[in-house]
Amino acid sequence: MVAWRAGAVECAGTARQPVLLPQPSYAIGWSGSGLAAPAMIEFSIDVNGRPVSIKSSGSRPIYGNDLAATLSAARFSADMSAERCQVTYQPTITDIDNAPREALQDYAIFPSGRPWTQEEQMRLWPSDGDCFKPTPAPRLRAYPDFSAIPQAPGTRSWSMIGFDVDGRGRPIKIKVDRSTGNAALDKAAVAAVSQSRFESRARRGCIVPFWRTGATLAAPAVPEALLAREKATCGGAGDWKAKPTPAFPDAFRRRGIEGWAVIGYDVAPWGQTGNLSVIASEPSADFGQAALGAMRLAYRMQSSQGATGCVKIVRFKIDGEAARPSGLAPVARD
Questions:
Q1: Beta carbons within 8 Å of 124's beta carbon, 6+ residues apart
Q2: Closest CA relative to residue 321, chosen from 149, 112, 66
């Protein structure tokens, strides 16, 4: 299990203290020499205190796909824009068998790779309990009002609630087993469990997760010059026969972070796109690479002469609010 931790942030050699710097998600991978390498991320800070122009310095970090997405949800003091910023993330690597339970629970709630094996799932539960043999059937489930729980856009929090069930199916000895520290979510989750009811059979060591994801974080505005440039180019090419349909960068999709990319390209008379390049992308270079892949597969209608110097703005949008409750527990009923 890989845990990434951010070091100090510097901009042009001067330390900058973030107002908010979310923690990257845990990742699971295979051990190896390249896995232990730190990952440096370069970026700028705009006038709103938002990290932009995010990109990895050097090769992409192994099992570090969430680093750029996490940094894009960070915040610095407004009206203190800066260039040439960087932060280095150091990996802490732990064998799965020795990983702390909060790390296992975090990954179970927000998985980014392979699912747990049944043996690994058992480690999510208190070792002295019997609630997973099988999990108690719910009779009444209560949930928090997630919309009333504060959560910064692009960030996530969770609360794992531990409890026993008495012979009447009432939760007792309710406590926060593990959490990311969102006090409002912890309180609301405890209240929700206390109002729930289960089958009339005493159990010990039950757990149930609740999580909160912030509202969608909209992409930075596209500069007017790029909007005008898109409208003014590619007049000799035909309409789109196969429009670009980019795959949303997964780490940003999971955090509800939108983006865009501006792609430069030419069009052959038979409609094929070529000479592709990323002119700009925000808030991260990940959106530029995703848009580039989509544009390679896009086609325009056949035309007499094709076109050169074309520009296309590819937008990555997310529909709806990402907040949602969990199921009863991360271990399936037997």
A1: 101, 104, 105, 108, 116, 207, 330, 331
A2: 149
pLDDT digits (tens, 9 = 90+) for 44-62: 999 999 999 999 987 777 7
What pTM was computed for the model?
0.89
Displacement of CA 44 from its chain's centroid (Å): 20
Q: Do 198 and 138 contact (CB within 8 A), yes or no? A: yes
Query: Minimal CA–CA distance to 333: which of 164, 131, 169?
Result: 131
- Give CA–CA dist 334/331, Å, rounded: 9
Question: Other C-beta atoms within 10 Å of 87: how many?
Answer: 23
Asked if residue 330 has pLDDT above 60, the reply is no
Question: What residue has token string 């399936």?
Answer: 332
Work out the pLDDT band at 239, boundaries 50, 70, 90.
confident
pLDDT digits (tens, 9 = 90+) for 207-231: 999 999 999 999 999 999 999 998 8
| Cis, bond preceding 283 (omega within 30 deg of 0) | yes
What does R_g of the chain's alpha carbons equal in angstroms?
A: 24
Classify each residue of 314-328 as buried b or exposed e, where b means 16 or more C-beta atoms within 10 Å of its C-beta.
bebebeeebbebbeb
